[in-house]
Amino acid sequence: MVSRTIPVDAFDLIIFGGTGDLARRKILPALFKRFCAGQMPAPSRLIGAARAEMSAADYREIARAALLEFAGEAALDDASVTEFCQTLEYVAVDARDGRGWDDLSAMLTDGPVRAFYYSVGPGLFSDLSARLHKHGLVNAETRIVVEKPFGHDLDSARGLNRELAQHFDESQIYRIDHYLGKETVQNLMAVRFGNMLFEPLWNAQYIDHIQITVAETVGVGGRGEYYENAGAMRDMMQNHLMQLLCLIAMEPPAMFEPDAVRDEKLKVIRALDVVQPHHIVRGQYTAADGYSSYREDVGNPRSKTESFIALKCHLNNWRWAGTPFYLRTGKRLKERDSEITVVFKDTPHSIFGPEAGRHRNELTIQLQPDEGITLGVTIKEPGPGGMRLIDVPLDMSFAEALGPDADTPDAYERLIMDVIRGNQTLFMRNDEVEAAWAWTDPIIRGWEARGDAPKPYDSFSAGPDDAALLMRRDGREWRGITH
Ligand code: NAD
Description:
Low-confidence stretches: none
CATH superfamily of the largest domain: Dihydrodipicolinate Reductase, domain 2
Number of domains: 2
Strand order of the largest sheet: 14-13-12-11-7-10-9-8-15
Bound molecules: nicotinamide-adenine-dinucleotide
CATH topology of the largest domain: Dihydrodipicolinate Reductase, domain 2
Distance between the termini: 40 Å
Strand content: 15-25%
Order of helices and strands: EHEHHEHEHEHEHEHHEHEEEEEEHHHEH
Mean pLDDT: 93
C-alpha cells in the first residue's frame, strides 16, 4: 500500500546554515525525498544560505554529496538527484552583518509561502530575525523554523521567545522537535483517540505505570562543547522525553488542530509534580576498549555533567494521580532503543490460581530503531497439561501491516511539509517550551546547589545500577534495555 501524497502549494525555503551538519544530514535529504514524491511544485525554490562564499554550482555539489551519503536508497536514482540539485540556489549571507542580504532580497518574490529555516546556533536567531525585518523579507506568508536547543533555562527561553515575538507572530514560528514528526508518535494519537479500545483504560485505575526510554549507543561525538553545558536533562529530557510524556498522558483534545493539541500538552507539563532528588539518577559514561570516557570526550576531567538520566515523576491530575512515570535517556548505552511502554495493572482476581503466574498487558510503542506498536496479551499455552498462561505480542509492525511499499517518511520530511502547509500541530508553542523549562530549572539548580556528581557507568551498559534500583524499589523493571 503506497501512501497518498497530498499536494502542497509552491514555496520558497531558505536554509540558513545550509552548509551545516543538520542541513546535510537531515534537511536536504528530507527535501529531496519530498521532491521525488512530487511535493515541490514549480516554481518552488530552495536556497542555501551560509557564511562561506561559493557559487550555486559549488553548493549543488555539497548537496549532491550529502544526498549520496544520507538520503539512502532514494539517492540511487541519479537522474532525480541531478534534477533536484538543479533547483538549488545559494547565497552567502552573514547573520551578524549586512553581507549578502540584498542578494537574498533580490532572489525572493512575493506570492509563494516563504519559510526561513534557522539551522544555525541559537545565538544567531535574534540577528537573523532582525535582518529579515530590516531587509523587508517578512510578509504575511513568512514562517520561520527554529531548531533546538530552545534556550538553556527558563530565563533564556523567555528571552528568545520575546526576541522572536518582536519580529513574528506566534503563528509564524515553528519550534521543531523531530520526535513529534515520527510516524509512531503520531500513531500514538491515532491509537489513543481513534479506537474505543484503549481510552477507557487509559488512567490510574487500569495502568500500573508508564515508562519512556530513549537510549543511544553513541557518545557525545563532536558536540562535546555544547553537550558539556547542556547534559542529558537539557539536551533530551526537557524536550524530546517531555513531548512524548505529553502525548501519552494528555486529555483528548476537542479537535486534532494546533492549539487544541498544544493546550492539552501544556496542561500535562503544568501538572507535573516537583521531582524528589532521590527519584533522580544521573550518570556519566566511562571509557571502554577503544572508546574514550565522557570526561575525555568533552575535555573536562572534573565534569559533573550527566550523559544519562533516569527519573520518576507524577502528574497531579484526576486521570493520573498515583501512577508513576519513569523516564530515562542516555548516551553510550548498550542498544539504540527508543520506546514507550504502558504497563497495565494485574487482573483484580486470577481465576487460574497462583500457579498461572503473574500476567499483565503491556502496550509498547517502539520509536527506534524500528517503528511499531505491540500489545502484549495473555493466552493459554497451547497443548494439554492444564491452564498454563503465556504472554504473546499482538504485533503491529508498520512494515508488515502496511506492506513493503508503505511510505514512512522521515520526521523531517513530514515536519517541513507541515511548515509549508501552515500546520503547527506538531510544533511546540512558546508557553509549552517555557513550562518545560519551569519544570526542569529547579531540578538542575538543586544539583548545582548540592554539587551533585553523576554516577559513573560502563560504556555500552544499561546505565548506572541505581537506575535499576529506582524501579526495583517499587517492584518494577525497565523494559527494553535492562541491567
Ligand atoms: P554546523 O556548525 O554544522 O553549521 C552551522 C551553519 O551555520 C553553517 O552552515 C554556517 O555557515 C552557518 N553560520 C554560522 N555562522 C553564521 C553567520 N554568522 N551567518 C550565517 N550563517 C552562519 O551546525 P549544525 O550541526 O548544522 O546545527 C545547526 C543548528 O541545528 C544548531 O542550532 C544545532 O543545535 C541544531 N541541531 C543540530 C542537530 C544536528 O544533528 N546537527 C540536531 C538538532 C539540532
